[in-house]
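Entry 14. Structure prediction run on the chain below.
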Amino acid sequence: LPPPAVLALVAAWAQLFGLISFELFGQFNRLVEEREPLFRQAAGELARSVGLRGTPAG
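Output returned:
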């Protein structure tokens, strides 16, 4: 992969890892009531930022 693509993928992976960690360790508690829509939106934006397209499952 070209270096810019690697950078974009690593940045998206780090952000996704952060979202998952925040959810697992309760960092969104008392900040976000509806966490599932937040996660779906953020994950979708990360996917689009690295060129993934499609309809989310579920």
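The chain has two helices and no strands.
Filed with the rest of this week's runs.
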